[in-house]
């Protein structure tokens, strides 16, 4: 009798826990789902409050087409965003791997000082040095260019990239290197052929953070990209949402927000364990 | 060591020179990183300090004016209002984030069915950018085409559609709700790593000794999570002190400039009014605040002394 009751109450507790979990999950997912679904409404319906969130008068991609008619359209800013993000990934990985290898495997003058200086840039908010960055970019002829923005983003990612990669290289046993050196491998083949396959989880992690960081960054892009043809998606969408292109089309905003969110969500779902790894590495530091 | 000792003197020297040169190559590997940090961080940092001592318009010549910009800051009530608002926002949003993230962390820390799904759902908004999230919520909060006001009206909770963004209180709490939605999952994961590092036998021993869940939480969980809590706290505080995107995109600093944050004010001075020197002086103040926060962080995150 007593046993049956305790089993019963455990069952109820489990049920209550899962009910809480599902309601909470729905609360967190709702705004994302709401936007993605609403974006597929026809333009007339998208102007009305999203109740219910799904299209009731037929499925349509009209909002994406409308979005494409504002300013320089949807494609140009999407391409700009993609270009900036991919280049940030490529250069964060190259610079991060080289520096991580250098800091992990060599002894040279000022090594510790350089490492500390690079890591401590994380303490300084980049928001406070945007004006001089703008002037430096102008000086070297990179102002209002996507390349200039990439340089800034790679620099902002550096402390994390280098910290991650140095730890990754530190974890590779020295015996492996010594064996390869016996076989006549020089520094470059050592790095490319022997080390890279061993540190690739670290590379995926810094690539993921570089992509998300560059894709989502707002303030620097807002300040540094003054020419409309160089706008990234967040800047273009904010211009649209502020009414810069006339009356605000909320259907187009939903479509734009969907385009901005979906790549992040897909990358996260595919590479979740690398993301959590990066967070942990940062947290345990 | 022993192998070196047994080799002949010339061979040893050659080996050391070779090793020395090999070590120097390390400098080449780190050179690109050092160059980037120098050009896009160290130099701009020095320039901020230098510019803060100048009257520096966007066009035309700049002139040295000593500490005049800093003197002007002392009289700049709107900056102090922005700083006060930033502090108020930071306190409220940090409390709100922890109030949501801590229960979530306790909830997902215990393995059960569907934990993976719950964890992923709670975390999803964290990978969406602040700009995307702000644009999304600016739609949800819109009085005519949004979700909240029309839904409340249709459910009969309000007599007419209320514009949530028109007055300070509802606008401010809407931002808090949006930020908690976006950030709680992130804080939750950090807190979870702290919870998982607590040895389970410690909890069990306390349970056998008859400690209730609240007593266990106070005597074991909280003290052992000190470093994790400090990290989550500092990340939340630093992020909030630098808040900009959500206030720019959703509220444009309104209603009546009541939600201008420190970064927003610097942005306005530097890139709307183009008072670059004054903006640099304001930036120096922000920088000092953030570095002070980082030093507090280092102190809070120090390793426990002795055997702990």
Question: Can you walk through the features of this model?
Answer:
The complex is a heterodimer of chains A (285) and B (308). Chain A is mostly helical. Chain A has 2 domains: 2-66, no CATH class; 69-248, MetI-like fold (Orthogonal Bundle), CATH 1.10.3720. Helices cover 74% and strands 0% of the residues of chain A. Chain A is built from 13 helices and no strands. In chain A, helix 4 crosses helix 9 and helix 7 (146-170) packs across helix 9 (187-216). The longest helix of chain A is centred in the first third of the chain and has 37 residues, at 2-38. The model of chain A has no long low-confidence stretch (mean pLDDT 90). Chain B has 308 residues and is mainly α. Chain B contains 14 helices and 2 strands; from the N terminus they run H-H-E-E-H-H-H-H-H-H-H-H-H-H-H-H. In chain B, helix 2 packs across helix 14, helix 3 (68-75) packs across helix 14 (276-300) and helix 6 (130-140) runs parallel beside helix 12. The longest helix of chain B is centred in the N-terminal third of the chain and has 43 residues, at 9-51. Chain B starts with a helix and ends in an 8-residue tail after the last helix. Classes of the chains: A mainly alpha (285), B mainly alpha (308). At the A-B interface, helix 1, helix 4, helix 5, helix 6 and helix 7 of A face helix 2, helix 5, helix 6, helix 7 and helix 8 of B.
Record keyword descriptors for this entry.
heterodimer, A: mainly alpha, 2 domains, 13 helices, 74% helix, 0% strand, B: 308 residues, mainly alpha, MetI-like fold, two-stranded antiparallel sheet, 1% strand, globular
